[in-house]
Amino acid sequence: MHDFCGGRTHAEDESAAAAPAVDLAHLSRQTLGDGALALELLTIFDRQAAKFAARLSEPPRPGDGASRADLAHTLKGSARAVGAFRLGDAAEAYETALRGGDPQADLRCAALLGAIATARGEIVTLIETADAGDGASW
To answer: What is the rounded distance in angstroms from the CA atom of residue 88 to the CA atom of residue 119?
Structure first.
């Protein structure tokens, strides 16, 4: 069975769902191993994701598709930059659905909101763990 994110199988989806929402090795490479910078980026991303989730949770208005697609596009890039690849994929799927006039775009939006919630939950835990240990140790 394929999903909307590019033809993965159900088993591949289950494997991906078990993986962390944020690829910390990628984030470490992006920040050249600077744990404080990684935490700062995660904090900024978490705030951005919260704002985007609030906007995406609002009912779409007529003619709102392009601005919502732009929002998803921005989220796609920032998610991938911090290593939240599943979130980036969900944002891309929603953006593509909107730009292509897919009547199922609302389902893609729901999936995106779920991916945002999952990533934010993990990020909050990472930040709290780092704060309790006086810095990022992952």
So the answer is: 10
